[in-house]
Amino acid sequence: MAVEVRGVVSRGKGQPVTVERVVVPDPGPGEAVVEVQACGVCRTDLHYRDGGISDDFPFLLGHEAAGTVSAVGAGVTGVVPGDFVILNWRAVCGICRACARGRPWYCFDTVNATQRMSLTDGTPLTPALGIGALAEKTLVAAGQCTKVDPEAPAAAAALLGCGVMAGIGAAINTAGVTQDDTVAVFGCGGVGSAAVAGARLAGARTIIAVDIDRRKIGAARRLGATHGVNAGVEDPVAGTLVLVGVPTPDMRMDMPMLDLFSRGGAVKPSWYGDCLPSRDFPMLIDLYKQRRLDLDRFVSETIPLELAEDALAAIGRGDVLRSVVVF
Ligand SMILES: [Zn+2]
Ligand SMILES: [Zn+2]
User: Fold this and answer.
1) N or C: which end of the chain has fewer CB within 10 A?
2) Residue 317's pLDDT band (boundaries 50, 70, 90)?
3) Contact of 265 with 241, CB cutoff 8 Å
4) Is the CATH code 3.40.30.10 the one for domain 3-161+294-326?
5) What is the pLDDT of residues 249-274, one digit of tens each?
6) Residue 46 above 80 pLDDT?
7) Which ligand places an atom closest to the C-alpha of 99?
8) Centroid of ligand 2 to alpha carbon of 246 (angstroms)
9) How close is the Cα of 52 to the center of ligand 1, in Å?
10) Does position 111 have pLDDT exceeding 60, yes or no?
11) Does position 248 have pLDDT exceeding 80, yes or no?
C-alpha cells in the first residue's frame, strides 16, 4: 500500500518551500522505500528552489540522507528491510563503458527509482537529485542505498551522502593528496571544510584554508587546516586545481598558462568527490567511529522539517556548515 508522509516541496521558482503531504508508492522491482532519519540541507536544494537546476517543479527536496530501509521491491538483493543506509545520488549501472573501464564514478547511466512520488492530488514530484529525502519516507532505486554501521548517528552519517563526500573525495580521490603535500582549499563552507578534513586524513603537511569569511576559516582550522588566508585581505596562490562545485553554463576560467606549464599544474573536475558509495561510505563511517574523522563538527544545527525554509535562508547567508533535519 502506498503511504502518505510529510515532505518539503518547492512549488515554484524562488517561492518559499512548504511541508506537504507526499504519496510514496510501494517499491517496484529494483526499488526501496527508506524511512529517513536525518537529511542535510544542501546548497543544491537552494538551487532547486531558485530554479537553477531545472524547471521540473514541484520538487521534493533533500538528497543528503541516512535512514532505515522499510521495504524493498522484487529482485532487490543488496539491502533488506531494517538495514541502516546512506543514500547516494549516483548509483552506478555496472555495465556502461565508464563502469567497464573501472571508472564507475563517471558512470553514464546511473539509476533512480522508476515510479514517481506525488502530491495527494496526483501531481508527480521531481525528487532532488533522484532522492527527495526531506521527507519522512522516500522511494529510491535500491542501488542508491549503501548499508553502513548503524552505530553512527544518522545526522552525521547523512552528510556523507553529498557535501562531506564531495569534499573529502575531492581531496583523496580526485586530487590524490598524500603526505608532504601542500593543499589550499578555496571556499570553506560544508564542502570546502570537508576537503580540509580529507587532506588531513590523507596526511597533507600544510593545509591552507582560503575564504573571505573568517567564521569559515575558523571552522576549517578546527577540522585540520594548518593555515588560514582571508582572501578579502591577502592574495592566495594556487597549485593543482580541483573544481568541486557544479558550474553554470556561462562560467569561464582564465588562468596564466605559463604558471600551469612550468609547475606541472593540472585542472580536474571532481564529480561527487569521484566517490564510489559502496567503497567510500562504509570506510568513512569506520574512520568516524575511530575518531579520525569528526563528522559531528559539520552538523551546525539539527532542526525539524518545518524549519527547512529557514535552513535554506541560512545557507544563502553563509551562516552554517550544515543544518540537518532530524525525524
Ligand atoms: Zn555505468
Ligand atoms: Zn548536495
Assistant:
1) N
2) confident
3) yes
4) no
5) 788 888 888 877 887 778 888 899 99
6) yes
7) 1
8) 10
9) 26
10) yes
11) no
